[in-house]
Write a structure and sequence with these properties.
The protein has 11 helices and 15 strands. The chain is of the alpha/beta class. Bound molecules: adenosine monophosphate and magnesium ion.
Amino acid sequence: MIQISSDINRAATILQEGGLVAIPTETVYGLAGNIFNESAIKKIFKTKQRPLFNPLIVHVKSRKYVNEVAEYIPPKATQLADAFWPGPLTLVLKKKPIIPDLITAGKDTVALRMPDHPLTQKLLNALDFPVAAPSANPFGRISPTKAEHVANYFADELEMVLDGGPCQSGIESTIIGFDGDNPIIYRLGSISREDIEAVVGPVESITKNDTTPDAPGMLSRHYAPTTPTVLSNDVLATVMKHQGKRIGILFFKTIVPHDGIAVAKVLSPNGSEKEAASNLYAALHDLDNMNLDVIIAERLPNQGLGASINDRLLRATK
Ligand code: AMP
Ligand code: MG
């Protein structure tokens, strides 16, 4: 039976013995295992039911470690790490052979990130290996942003979730890969395109492809509630289309009352995209547990983190 606890020593012991621990980060909770322990890494894929072709992000404690595992660090990768690490930015770099193929799904690149959460930083400092830590949810489901979300998913499969409180940024990291020295956005996330471009200039995005995903975060259905979910520009018009059903609404900043709405939630009463991102998954978890027939989510203005949130909501609807 899973225990929710903030005991870093216990978490370190479980990881050193080849077990898995769910860990808090500023983005979402991760399912962590020692990257050099093959059985731990296989357990991550098995527990999440994640296909083996989906590579994992390696969470490191220091910039120094990046030099030990990356074959080449483009100058713009250094600029981005200077600007955003520790933080919700993942860099995909050419790897050295020390990184096992199981982590990278056989690719010659490795995804690296330095998380910005005090408990997880302490934990990483207590270990002499980095951890792989994909989001601690079954593949395709809503990512966990609270220890209880993890406990609900993996009550029997996991021994421990390290409780670091609710995740601050609340959606996954922004993933940047490189074509030679040119940065490419693989997945929009907790850092907006605008913030990336303020550091390195205009950046292209990779277009998604379900058969050979460079990042599974790019699969068109992902981050999904079990309740059918619709993304809408005009919530009330969409409510009319679903008359007679038990409807839940996820508004951005203001509840617009209407007959036939069973539950309404607001992501950010102040209209802050940052606050909306940090509340997004908890709101979806709550709505998904309310026996609704349909969840209607209001589309945000497509700028800044609004674009990242719309991306996640769109994938929740497929
Ligand atoms: P998750 O931790 O579940 O949000 O997923 C981590 C993301 O990092 C996935 O979408 C991975 O595909 C992506 N990723 C990890 N390694 C690589 C790599 N070598 N190339 C491209 N994307 C990667
Ligand atoms: Mg995930």
